[in-house]
């Protein structure tokens, strides 16, 4: 009887052990399957890794100094340009007797135009040299009369025109290859000495191709002149010099 009881209890114990073992295995299997579903990445995906973020550093911005704008160029109109220079005696003779347009009529291109202009200039220069002093005097007198008016108008122009406007005009004149305006103050200029006055007078009468040679020729002519011939130039200089000294003393 006792033996049967022992056998039954041992069989019951073995069943209990098997059931508990199976239960533990089932729990572990379920836990593994759940964890695999959660942590296992899909195909083509990488495991998420924690990125180490660096602390953002503040950049110190240096304030730039405001750039100074250049002053705008003054507006220049035709009225701001200086009065026109008077034509020299030779140019008066040239414009009166020759036409550049007529010389260009038969020219086909720029090369032929240059040749035509050169031939016309040579012809006019030879014709001017062939004139007598009396014939040239007509053109010289007209030039000096216009020059007096020009110098008066130029003084008024310089007095009313600002240096900025003159500077802007000179920029444009330089690009075109024209005469530049020499800005001068209202200070009185010294008068020209007798020889320089004579030289300027002779220069207005001749076509000068070589300045150094022309200066030597005028110097020889001046030294060969008598005191009576030089007297008008010296008297004019002395008078202008006295007026100059009085104006400087008043200033």
TrEMBL record:
Q: Which residues bind DNA?
A: 83-158, 188-251
Keywords annotated in UniProt: DNA-binding, Nucleus
Q: Which Gene3D superfamilies match?
A: High mobility group box domain
Per the record, which residues fall in region Disordered? 39-81
- Report biased composition (Basic residues) as residue ranges: 48-63
Recall the GO molecular function terms of this protein's record: DNA binding
Which SUPFAM superfamilies has this protein been placed in?
HMG-box (SSF47095)
Ranges annotated as biased composition (Basic and acidic residues): 64-81
Sequence ranges assigned to domain HMG box in this UniProt record: 83-158, 188-251
Q: Nucleus: present as a keyword of the record?
A: yes
Q: Which GO terms describe its cellular component?
A: nucleus
Stated name of the protein? HMG box domain-containing protein
């Amino acid at each position: 009887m006792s033996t049967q009881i022992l056998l039954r209890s041992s069989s019951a114990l073995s069943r209990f052990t098997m059931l508990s073992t199976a239960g533990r295995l089932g729990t572990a299997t379920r836990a593994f399957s759940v964890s695999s579903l959660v942590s296992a990445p899909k195909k083509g995906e990488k495991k998420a890794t924690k990125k180490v973020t660096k602390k953002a550093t503040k950049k110190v911005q240096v304030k730039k100094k405001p750039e100074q704008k250049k002053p705008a160029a003054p507006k220049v109109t035709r009225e701001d340009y200086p009065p026109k220079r008077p034509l020299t005696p030779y140019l008066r003779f040239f414009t009166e007797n020759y036409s550049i347009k007529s010389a260009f009529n038969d020219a086909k291109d720029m090369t032929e135009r240059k040749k035509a202009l050169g031939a016309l200039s040579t012809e006019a220069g030879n014709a001017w040299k062939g004139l007598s002093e009396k014939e040239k005097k007509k053109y010289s007198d007209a030039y000096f009369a216009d020059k007096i008016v020009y110098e008066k108008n130029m003084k008024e122009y310089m007095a009313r025109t600002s240096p900025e406007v003159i500077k802007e005009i000179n920029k444009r004149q330089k690009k075109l290859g024209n005469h530049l305006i020499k800005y001068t103050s209202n200070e009185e200029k010294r008068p020209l000495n007798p020889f320089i006055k004579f030289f300027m007078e002779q220069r207005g009468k001749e076509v000068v191709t070589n300045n150094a040679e022309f200066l030597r020729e005028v110097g020889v002519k001046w030294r060969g002149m008598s005191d009576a011939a030089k007297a008008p130039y010296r008297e004019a200089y002395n008078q202008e010099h006295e007026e100059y000294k009085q104006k400087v003393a008043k200033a």
